[in-house]
Write a structure and sequence with these properties.
The protein has 153 residues and is an alpha+beta fold. It has 7 helices and 2 strands, in the order H-H-H-H-E-E-H-H-H. A two-stranded antiparallel ribbon has the order 1-2.
Length: 153
């Protein structure tokens, strides 16, 4: 039993590539093509060039974001222009803009690139030197201990 004919068209390859460069996720891609996500997943299987366009677009977008994050983490400089009024005339003046390193970007980069070294949660192992053998404590003593703990709250 065949379903409805596919809406897929080869021009979608270039469109999906550009959507992915803009950071689109599969749900947004499906909305753009006016289909459900399952259809997008089927197109990925049935049309390898469609899947390749998605991969390339996402890969380039992710690389660009990673590059900008890296630049912010280390700090960077670039040439620019400012428009100023000099002796009554409007002029473009070349300037060099300097952006200092951004600690938040550096921390984010390190936590994601080296999570074992930079994660917030540190796991410590504590060895108990004086182990308590609860089997030698009477039920009554344990009950008193529990009650004392409950009453302390």
């Amino acid at each position: 039993m065949a379903g409805a004919p596919t809406k897929y068209d080869e021009v979608f390859n270039e469109q999906v590539y550009k959507l992915c460069l803009l950071g689109a996720i599969d749900k947004e891609i499906a909305e753009f093509f006016n289909v459900c996500e399952a259809t997008i997943n089927n197109w990925k299987i049935e049309y390898p060039e469609f899947l390749e366009s998605i991969k390339k677009g996402k890969q380039i977008a992710d690389a660009n974001v990673a590059d900008r994050l890296y630049q912010r983490a280390l700090g960077f400089e670039h040439d620019s222009e400012e428009i100023k009024v000099i002796e009554g005339d409007i002029e473009r003046v070349p300037v060099r803009k300097v952006y200092p390193p951004d600690p938040t970007s550096a921390i984010f980069w390190l936590k994601n690139r080296q999570p074992a070294k930079w994660r917030d949660k540190q796991e410590l192992e504590v060895e108990q030197k004086n182990k308590i053998d609860y089997s030698k404590i009477s039920d009554e003593a344990l009950q008193e201990f529990i009650q004392a703990g409950l009453n302390a709250e």
